[in-house]
């Protein structure tokens, strides 16, 4: 499991991957209206660390997405410690 000091970097990578995926679909972080996060309950992970990283990406927007965060014992993706699921709305 990652050490405490690695969680911010892991979360940063997850949000950067989200930005990349959104970009490939023609969307931006500002277009996200709903964000679901699944955090594996692992040593060093705390919700405050997650909130700080999430706010680095979404905190400056006038309207933040509706968000749900769930701590889970594991995921169906081997080795995954963070899963982000986003719904974005893009105007035609």
Number of domain units: 1
Please tally the helical runs, counting DSSP H or I stretches of 4 or more residues. Answer: 2
CATH topology (fold) name: 60s Ribosomal Protein L30, Chain: A
Write down the Rg: 13 Å
What's the level 1 CATH class?
Alpha Beta
**Main beta-sheet annotation:** 3 strands, mixed
Fraction of residues in helix: 25-40%
CATH superfamily: RutC-like
The end-to-end span amounts to 43 Å
Strand-residue proportion = 25-35%
Strand order of the largest sheet: 2-1-3
Considering the chains and any ligands shown, give keywords for the structure.
alpha+beta, 60s Ribosomal Protein L30, Chain: A, three-stranded mixed beta sheet
How would you portray this structure in words?
The chain has 92 residues and is an alpha+beta fold. It has one domain: 60s Ribosomal Protein L30, Chain: A, CATH 3.30.1330. Helices cover 33% and strands 25% of the residues. The protein has two helices and three strands. It has helices at residues 7-24, 47-58, and strands at 32-40, 66-72, 82-88. The chain has a three-stranded mixed sheet, with helices on one face. The longest helix has 18 residues, at 7-24. It is globular. It starts with 6 loop residues before the first helix and ends with a strand. The mean pLDDT is 89.
In short:
The chain is an alpha+beta fold and 92 residues long. The protein has helices spanning 7-24, 47-58, and strands spanning 32-40, 66-72, 82-88.
Task: Note the topology.
Layout: H1 7-24, E1 32-40, H2 47-58, E2 66-72, E3 82-88
Parallel strand pairs: 1-2
Antiparallel strand pairs: 1-3
């Amino acid at each position: 499991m990652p050490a405490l000091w690695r969680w911010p970097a892991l979360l940063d990578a997850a949000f950067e991957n989200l930005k990349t995926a959104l970009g490939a679909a023609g969307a931006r972080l500002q277009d996200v209206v709903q964000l679901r996060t699944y955090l594996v309950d692992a040593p060093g992970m705390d919700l405050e660390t997650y909130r700080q990283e999430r706010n680095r990406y979404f905190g400056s927007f006038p309207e933040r997405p509706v968000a749900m965060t769930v701590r889970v014992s594991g995921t169906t993706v081997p080795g995954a410690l963070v899963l982000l699921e986003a719904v974005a709305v893009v105007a035609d």
